UniProtKB/TrEMBL annotation:
Main location: other
Record protein name field: Uncharacterized protein
Pfam families named in the record: LRR_1, LRR_8
SUPFAM superfamilies: L domain-like
Annotated transmembrane regions: none
UniProt-listed Gene3D superfamilies: Ribonuclease Inhibitor
Location of this chain's protein in the cell: Cell envelope
InterPro entries per UniProt: Leu-rich_rpt (IPR001611), LRR_dom_sf (IPR032675), PGIP (IPR051848)
Signal peptide residue numbers: none
Amino acid sequence: MANLTSLQRVKLSKNQLRFDLSKLKLPEGVSSVDLSSNLVTGSLSSLLNSKTSRFLEEAHLSNNQISGRIPDFSESLNVKVLNIGNNKIGGQIPSSISNLFELVRLDISRNHITGVIPQGLGQLEQLNWLDLSINQCTYRKNPG
């Protein structure tokens, strides 16, 4: 797929694709990837980082077998939609989620997320859809 230099959107949802996410090499310029409802494994860090995702705006990865943790996010990412619901992702939501200034939709539902929901989520002014349901998250009200 890396040779498809004009490719902007990849939609391979609802198939029986079995591969490790770290093996996926998207061509530079891809702004949207939809691999939802497959048998994808591996961790998110290989896809969601400043080296491989400069152009990525939408990542639809729900209903797979993705594990590991949600990676730290740099300010250089322009992700607007992150749908990673119904996987096997654990750990906490990183406070660096607040670096995703352009984020409009975030679905982390039906995973194994624990810990306190980061205050930084409240700073994402563009966010209009947030689904953290069916996890083990807690909330701590900001004192004051």
